[in-house]
């Protein structure tokens, strides 16, 4: 069980590293935020599951489940709030962006 925990922890660490690499490589703040949020959510969950499996004798399974639930709830919500704040502040999308849903929502609100 300890070997499985170590492998899952390693996979989680790799996903976290790839998320950091995505933050560096993406062209604008919105793409960086998306790469960082998805990768940190999955990487953190894998890392915590690996720790739980690798150290099952510590009896911290309940705490790790609570941490996983907390990460699943807070990461997407905070990312959404930051993206909306960035859009409201006027931070431009990259030229390669195809669609701006928030701009369309704002225009629909002005028409009413």
Overall structural class, as computed from helix and strand content, comes to mainly alpha
Task: Return residue spans where pLDDT drops below 50 for at least 5 consecutive residues.
Answer: none
SSE run: HHHH
Main sheet summary: none
Strand content: under 5%
The whole-number mean of residue pLDDT values reads 86
Q: What count of domains describes the coordinates?
A: 1
- End-to-end distance, in Å? 60 Å
Q: Please give the number of β-strands.
A: 0
- In percent, how helical is the residue content? over 70%
Total number of helical segments? 4
Q: Report the C-alpha radius of gyration, rounded.
A: 18 Å
Shape: elongated
What key phrases describe this protein's structure?
112 residues, 79% helix
Descriptive account of the structure:
This protein starts with a helix and ends with a helix. The protein has one domain (2-111). The chain is built from four helices and no strands. The chain is mostly helical and 112 residues long. The protein is elongated.
């Amino acid at each position: 069980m300890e070997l499985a925990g170590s492998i899952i922890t390693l996979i989680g660490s790799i996903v976290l590293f790839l998320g950091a690499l995505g933050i560096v490589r993406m062209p604008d703040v919105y793409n960086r935020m998306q790469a960082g949020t998805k990768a940190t959510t999955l990487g953190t969950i894998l890392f915590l599951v690996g720790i739980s499996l690798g150290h099952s004798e510590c009896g911290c399974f309940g705490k790790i489940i609570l941490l996983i639930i907390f990460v699943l709830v807070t990461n997407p919500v905070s990312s959404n709030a930051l993206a909306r704040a960035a859009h409201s502040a006027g931070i431009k999308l990259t030229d390669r962006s195809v669609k701006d849903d928030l701009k369309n929502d704002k225009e629909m609100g002005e028409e009413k």
